[in-house]
What does this fold into?
Amino acid sequence: MSNKLNNNELKAIGIKDEALLELAGRLAKSLIKNKTYTKEALLAFYKELLKNPDSYTSNELFAELAEEVKSKASLFKKSQAIVQTFELRTDTLAYPIYGTEHISDDAKHQMNAAMQLPVAVAGALMPDAHSGYGLPIGGVLATEPNIIIPYAVGVDIACRMCLSVFDINAIFLDQKTKLLKQHLLDHTYFGLDGENRDQLADTIFDLPEWKSTAQIRQLRYKAEKQLGTSGTGNHFVEWGILDITEQTPELKLPKGKYLALLSHSGSRGFGANIATHYSKIATEKTKLPREAQHLAWLDLNTEEGQEYWIGMNLAGDYASACHHQIHRRLAQAIGSKPVAMIENHHNFAWKETLADGREVMVHRKGATPAGKGVMGIIPGSMTQPGFVVRGKGESSSICSASHGAGRLLSRSKALKTITRPELKQVLADKGVTLIGGDLDEAPMVYKDLNQVMSYQNDLVEVLARFTPKIVRMADPDKRTKGWEG
It folds into this structure.
């Protein structure tokens, strides 16, 4: 039997935090090497220290470890064995619905359930809303500040928009259509198992959070392989024309039409695994009535809550890095640098303060942040222009706006009712080139974005319009039907 004390043995007695493991392991190596303790005696000593760290804070050898154990214990409640059952409110908190006549009853029922949660504080339903898992897509939910709901964030954590604007006249698209199409084929990667074969140097993996939890450490290898790739479903990378209707400091160009690159995707397999893992824990620990079971939450004062919070925020940084990889590769391919980049999440949770001063956790599942002066992108379909917007900070919408046009048809219904000749005709009529994609993302499955925008004039102002021209999506045989965002 080895005399060395390894991490698995330390974890077995309850030392699972990365910093504690490092400190306890370093100390054990020294004490065992100098024969101050045997491995067995030291393990027994560590068990006692974990139970009562205050007794060892004056011990010359173990004071540092004892203080570290105390600091960790003060951060987390011991929640491993706690299962709590909650009932819904008998009343539904009032919330605004934007464009209510074009939102399905299913989506409204889901939002009603969210507004009956005992931890709910405020909410809003965006005009592109449709039903999803837990919170409807297009739902905005503010909860008590220490409460976070994985399914109110969504499976594709930090699903994100990113727009690069080039000081290149839009006529370049007509002159170089074949070349721009080839660049998309050469420099974008899609699909559940898509991997990036030409990654650029990146600092994303220098972040210390990659070592913070066991779940994150297990997923790092997958994240490294998928950096700079895009998902399936409605994720895309596309060249198009940006028509700047108002000169602004953010867009850095005068009014006119310019070449632009727009991408939509999230945190890939990394975020999906974080979401699945902690959603399961939430539903095991927070028991709710059947109609609200997917709205189970985690408390940030628990270890699991803190782990999810770290994972979600890291997924946000990772999703941004994925987009930046894509945009850097394609900018290099055309030999130009963007003069402006606009980006935003729309599946995320933020600690914010409401207009009345209450601190809350704001979940935006398929909703764009629209605080006063905050820039964002609301895309259309592949044949329908989207918009660059600036938020007006409207408090009734919890400083939010739609994240797109929203679906009219479910994926399954679209696949049954739309034909390939119909899709080809619509694309030809609009002068759009599509690489990949499937019938469940045909333009006909989406609402009219202009109508959606008409319901949120109080929420955002439009600064520019983006018209897609060359669209790259996942190939049909690499798709899944489950992504949200």
Confidence is low (pLDDT under 50) at residues 76-80, 478-485. The radius of gyration is 25 Å.
